[in-house]
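Two proteins, back to back. First:
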Amino acid sequence: MRAVVIGAGIAGLVAARGLVNAGVDVLVIERSRSVGGRMATRRVGAATLDHGAQFFTTRTPAFRKQVGEWVERGLVRVWSHGFGTDDGYPRFVATAGMNSLAKDLAVGLEVECSTMAFAVRAGEGPPSATTYPWQVVIDDGSTRAADAIVITTPLPQAFALLADTSVGLDDTLFRTDYDRTITMLAVLDHPGIVPNPGGVQEPDSTFSFIGDSMAKGVSAEPAITFHATASWSEQHWSESKEQLLDSLESAAAPWLGDATVVERQLKKWRFATPRTIWPDPYWATPDNTIILAGDAFAGPRIEGAHNSGMAAAHSLTT
């Protein structure tokens, strides 16, 4: 079997690893320059900041097993047991930034980054030893042939990829909307005053999460990630980069103390969080050759994306 996985976030990488372990020939296609999706880490000078997911929890046996392996290898550690209140439930972080976990999952996989899937279409001619039932069309006009395709992009993007196929598309599923998130990465001349353990959830009407990268052990230099709320992000989405940075830095003042922002960068997540979570861990065509997976199926968390990718791989190999 030849499978193509579209999207190298955690769902796509976990699906690819599961398929490879089952003996499937797998190619992963990723439009960005690196794997990871929202498991994103940026280096700004000597500072390191996670600008997507800030931490993760474990609720299911499958993900606990994966996280346990990462802990044993020193890739993951417990950051805290709550923000403001210690509830005894561990929040994990990657010791070298969230993107390091995606890169770990990608080791040994065939991954084409900076490769944008433009469309999925039926293969030329009937399936045989030399032809495949599906092709992924790349934006440069080239194609990647496959017996099966796993799509882990946000659902509106998956809908666009499949629009010209005969796949029966469920409009309710594919029109799933997502909250947006605007993020400011701030490098400081000295530490700010984010309270221990260095994270604040839903502090005010502007920010949904504030994460101190030095406090959580990711950055050698003072740096803070500020995630704006979905409502603030929606309201201000069309403003210029400088307008957004000025507004966010002003709102961040209570968490900076007397520290000065020496560098600031902006990240806009158009498909940050699915507003509707579907009950099944994946969606598949009746012949099981097109499969959709990701956090819209198993929950808007790293764990949900992981488990959805695992379920997608299992569905192709059983």
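And the second protein:
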Amino acid sequence: MVTPDFFKTFDIQSRKAAVSRNKTSMAARALPWLNENFARKFLPNVDPIGKRLLIEQLIPGVTKLGPPLEWAIVGVYHNVRSGGPRGDDYVEMTVPFYQSPWPSVGMAVRTASEPGAMTKSIASVISSMDSNLAMADIKNHGPDRE
């Protein structure tokens, strides 16, 4: 489950896209993005854009799956190693957070300045939104080094 800037933040390139990834269009319909492995494995030899999938709903706090929802595929993005260093064949579908909110979320911030300097500012913004929210598992990564 991701927000519209997920792909931009992590510089994940999309191979195809049917609609923009903005909040308004994402909230209007169930619009998943597939990684190339998913498309190759489950939709071989067809253009996946516009194809519809029935997927049982995940309900926060409930172990049983909910009723199936229809999702219209809008894009395919290049594979990333979400499955770990050996996750070359990892199959992934990314859905809009606005359509499938979960009580536990992660946040990523891309900055041109030193990442550690942003931590205090981000904590302040989060606290101003809800003082009961805590930041945990903070990871600061510097610029890519060649």
